[in-house]
Amino acid sequence: MVKRFFNYFKPYKRLFLIDFGCAVLVALLEMAFPVLVRQVINKVLPVGSLRQIFLIGLALVLLYLVTTGLHYIVVALGHRLGINIETDMRRQLFAKIQKQSYSYFDKVKTGELMSRLSSDLWDISELSHHGPEEIFIAIMTLVGSFLLMYRVQPTLALMTVVFVPVLAIVIRYYNRKMTVINKGIYQGLAEYTAGLENVLSGMRVVKAFANEDHEKLAFEDLNQQYRSNKIKFYQAMGQSSSFNYMMIKSINLFSLMVGSYFTVRGNLTPGDLVGYILLVNVFVRPIERMNVMIELYPKGIAGFRRFCEVLDQPVDIEDAAGAVCAPHFNGLIEYRDVSFSYDEGASVFEDVSVVIEPGQKVALVGPSGVGKTTLVNLLPRFYEATRGEILIDKHSIKEYTLESLRKQIGIVQQDVFLFNGTLRENVLYGKLDATEREVEEAIKKAKLAEVVKDLPEGLDTVVGQRGVRLSGGQKQRLAIARIFLKNPSILILDEATSALDSKTEQFIQRSFDELAVGRTTLIVAHRLATIKDCDRILVVTEEGITEDGTHQELLAINGMYAELYHAQFGKKEESHQE
């Protein structure tokens, strides 16, 4: 763990050495004051030389000016070091999260990931700056000041240093205790952030059901748990801080009383006593700093462990060894004995085999929960098949890099996700380097031009979080514009119109028909009226694909499809149609 932590310092070795070196100089210069005071009292005052007093005073002024400059370097460069390491860690963590598959995000809360990308890394940053530096300087100051104290009065110095092992044992005990408590604090913070993100995202639903009081109670429960863990932490820190304070004052008092005894007995001069007491103050300063470290260290270590947990999480779907960039697809799709289950649980479907010809428009229908969406999500490898193989143009999809595979598959879902930016930025998500002309053409094809014209700032209108300022139909048209811009070889429409009213659905359906021209298209649908003109309709059940044919062919065999169709439209409509 320690070696892994210090690996993040390697790119900033020079910055670390400058910061560390300046901190060491500051610690050494602080020991100069007691030595000079001792010299003034023992040698300068008895002589009565004002010139020497003036020169020593001037030397101290210069000393403090140098120390001030060094302090600035330590604070400024030290924090820059911490920020650089924090930035690198955040970049690495975000890259790892982006590599994870849908399965990972099915299990991990968004708020928990947000917590690890923010508060955890802040505490790691503070530890990166202060941790190694503070520990080394504390040891150096303790040893250096002890040697100077020993030089003044060996017996008294040895008697004073007896307090250090007691302090070390107590500090170690509280460090361990607070590391455990901090783990609970971070877990509580992650749950608190996740709960808060969940409620704020669903605030419209909360208000629609007038459940503000219910959510207030749920929030208060999370809030109190987080509060309780923090109180435990600061109670432990308070105990440690109080004990350290008592020990520091005991060392000061002990040094004063025993030092005075040695002075009365003639073993110490008054100058030696004053110098020794000032050295004791330098000696105990690292112990005082340990109070800060006792708060900082457990937080940083707990944060780093949580950071490593995410970083060490295996990526279940990634490019195979030797994966190549996919060529332009013709759109021949084959599912060959494909089975799927979530985390070795109950199987969603087994041994699905189907071939879809290039340019065909194929619908998947069936009861809810049988895995229609999962089946199409296997194609861009959002999930990995448990068994079997999926091929495009007679090549396994695993032969291609994930990026090149997904670049050629366009997806429009029921719940269109829009980023909190402008209309233009959201359309450009289909092709980030698209020209203005390409954007305008995509908007025109998606029947979005009239919408853009009516908006106050046109394409530069901010759509709001998740596109809250747009209607369902407008969001779907924007999603279609994205796909026109992307221009994929294969198109997936997953319940893309199920949330729209009939009039808007018909309008959007015409755009989908235009979008599907020349592309292999897979449509997951509950509203069967939208898929009657498909080249093929596949009926998906728990047993896999049980029916395959055109609308009329499936009605004729009077199976599951006919049952679903009659449930939606009744037999009279079908008789009339015949």
UniProtKB/TrEMBL annotation:
GO terms for molecular function: ABC-type oligopeptide transporter activity; ATP binding; ATP hydrolysis activity. It is a multi-pass membrane protein. The chain crosses the membrane at residues 12-33, 53-75, 156-174, 242-262. The keyword Nucleus does not apply. It comes from the Bacteria. InterPro entries: AAA+_ATPase, ABC1_TM_dom, ABC1_TM_sf, ABC_transporter-like_ATP-bd, ABC_transporter-like_CS, P-loop_NTPase, Type_1_exporter. Keywords: ATP-binding, Membrane, Nucleotide-binding, Transmembrane, Transmembrane helix, Transport. GO terms for cellular component: plasma membrane. Residues 333-567 form the ABC transporter domain. Residues 17-299 form the ABC transmembrane type-1 domain. The keyword Ligase does not apply. It is found in: Cell membrane. Its main location: membrane. PANTHER family: ATP-BINDING CASSETTE SUB-FAMILY B MEMBER 10, MITOCHONDRIAL, ATP-DEPENDENT PERMEASE MDL1, MITOCHONDRIAL. This is ATP-binding cassette, subfamily B.
